[in-house]
């Protein structure tokens, strides 16, 4: 089959830009939507629902800009909209006109299929609802658009009145709709019952069936798979499972399950191997922290901490993985943790290029030091660079240090005119010289970071290319009356590689300073500087 | 049936304290474990697995302290451990002794049931593995312990060599084990195949079957339900789905699905109604941010943002909810958002006690103001108090203000002796008087917060009881070359109620200051103070 046939024989339909953006805390600008569409196209989905032109001004704009700014390789764009209003002709409804004029080759029409919703939400008769479906589908079909029907609240509707729910699907199909998408809008279905209904509907309606699920019962992905098992050949979902309430079916999990476990090629394998990168790139655009536990694509998805496992993983990694993480562009990781013990510290060392197996004393010393620091609140699981500095310090017999800290100060002033100024001073001893430097920034740590680099700039010009990429603060609540501590994680980049460092202290600025010093020290090591 | 019969006829078995604590970033002190056990007991689970005494010192300590410090109403404690080592008697294995001496009435033994794991990880013969199972179960059973068997990697093992996998279960049952728990250790199973295997195993083994699933294929909960459908009457899972890699089956989702959708009473209904509170209380102990999207118990689980829905929700909430959120102690919420439009702002206003339906001008003004601020990076979805201040400001024709800010300064000094000091000064005009006050803290914002309250203390003594509960910082990346902004969310408590406020600025301290001022202003309003 050609790629095009693959996409047509089984539809992977992404609705991140429409239904996904209903998630609490998620708000996408038009530029964000265009960026996400490009990522989804790179993954290789067949269809991208861009939004609701006419109803949401941002979405009208998205479809306008898409015509010149989006050069999709795989995917086709779909415009989402609803059936015509009651009592008007489809051709005269301005919202239907907006769909027609969006430039999208596909229109996905949402329609009521639940008798109570027709009555209470739409406030019309069952006959008029059917006419609205028929007219709108016929009109758009006659205008040359391909039409998919989203049957909203379908499963609840089918349980309430199966004959009417089916009649909605048949009406759409007779009017020219290509797919009837059964939507579990409230997300409450469980797989067994859902599969039975899909099976019945497929037999009774004679149309191509699609499935749209939500995770309110923690079964969105399983429900999508159950529907496919019962004959659905069109699956809707969203990147990273974004969506209202508990989210939509995570399209990444659905695709990986279909392709790697059920043997259906639904996207190009090359796209699948990019899935982890794409999941994180989309999260970057949405500005929501990626879920580390996300199946297949999360940073923890193939991370092992248990001491019990860590020793066996050395023997054969496949014994402890449900798939080869490379297939989805992810990696196995060993976590350094108090739970893990020596076996995982040894493995982690090997990952960083140090063979500790021949040196049990150092291994024991490093393990104890990690346990001691973790008891204070440090966490090396997400701070590889700080762990490597610790390891090198233990191997070398002294901490890795390029400079001595004499003092620092950082402050924010809100002046009488309302202007706020952040400045910092840092005094170091570098290569035998005392250096005092100042920096400013948009916060006290940013000012301190700039002052630190300024103090090191003359002695270490290589530091100029470093950039602070991410800064995370966690309050660790105190146990047994001790004061609460703050853990700071910093990610730094030199334009090629990224590394993460950690600092812990009761004082957030002190913790930040530790992480900054580790970040710069690791950067100097990476540039090949030698400790003086 | 009595409560005890309920728990015995269907086992809800929690393994948060053992398998859940394998999650990356999760580390529980003994006091944390005791606290979580109390929360799970309040929920009404039948069994709590406390850890691995003998192997993990913290867990040995947990079982020791549990005997005097835990007064469980519903649950029984289980100690986790493994079958005896190769070549020794069970009675002589110190790890088996630790299980015997833990004081737990139940011992859950993990055993290999996969031929390749016996060979490569255990490095022994298939016969010796069976002997290890038989001897350890017999010994503990003879010592008066109730024994459950966790058959590790069972499904992969059954697919590799079904006869041997079954033989492991039969051996355990003959030796006195009460339940054979089939573990999908690597988490890669899908519901249909898993259900088929559970069905076959139940017929062939004749023992009581339990199920233990992981979420690597996003099907942990569905897999647990599929196993129950196929005859399993013992389900293992963890609070909030904590666990290694993508986590374990979320026990809260499993229980709610079983009880509310499948009609099985597996915990007391009073416990179910506490589930949302308990889920958040456990998250508080683990110090992991609760997942807002968590099914049933997440703060977003019943939150509506879509304009399309918001207007219909007013007609009949049940049309848009899969269950009544009260059943699990959760609530429907309306979100204020640019997507939502007037209908949701009106609903939100009503939730706060303001009827905007009669005042379309104000409604339009508030809606526009919210859209304008959201475009700048504000988010009112998680900042009810800031939204209420905005609303009251628009209704009253002027911002709600109890004081005028003249200037402030906050700084951190690292002195030559290594000591770090944070201090702040704040100058306000309060009730006509200029007030200058100082504060110190463990960071610049904490110092500023203390200085602000100090400046207000004389005029408003009611502020003394306020406490800053949570402080969150989000970097919002800039769009189209604008500078990045920082959003700060602050949660404040007066010991009874909690409220959240938001601030946005390029400078993190300025953003924090805005949120602090809103927090204090809302606190004064709540105390019944009148704006002067």
UniProtKB/TrEMBL annotation, chains A, B:
Limits of the Pyruvate carboxyltransferase domain: 10-273
EC numbers on record: 2.3.3.21
Pathway stated in the Swiss-Prot or TrEMBL entry: Amino-acid biosynthesis; L-isoleucine biosynthesis; 2-oxobutanoate from pyruvate: step 1/3
Catalytic activity: pyruvate + acetyl-CoA + H2O = (3R)-citramalate + CoA + H(+)
GO BP terms, alphabetized: isoleucine biosynthetic process; L-leucine biosynthetic process
Highest rank taxon of the organism: Bacteria
InterPro entries: 2-isopropylmalate_synth_dimer, AIPM/Hcit_synth_CS, Aldolase_TIM, Citramal_synthase, LeuA/HCS_post-cat, LeuA_allosteric_dom_sf, PYR_CT
Keywords for this protein: Acyltransferase, Amino-acid biosynthesis, Branched-chain amino acid biosynthesis, Isoleucine biosynthesis, Transferase
Enzyme class, broadest EC rank: transferase
GO molecular function: (R)-citramalate synthase activity; 2-isopropylmalate synthase activity
Family: Belongs to the alpha-IPM synthase/homocitrate synthase family.
PANTHER family: (R)-CITRAMALATE SYNTHASE, ALPHA-IPM SYNTHASE/HOMOCITRATE SYNTHASE
Protein name as it appears in the record: Citramalate synthase
Gene source species: Catenulispora acidiphila (strain DSM 44928 / JCM 14897 / NBRC 102108 / NRRL B-24433 / ID139908)
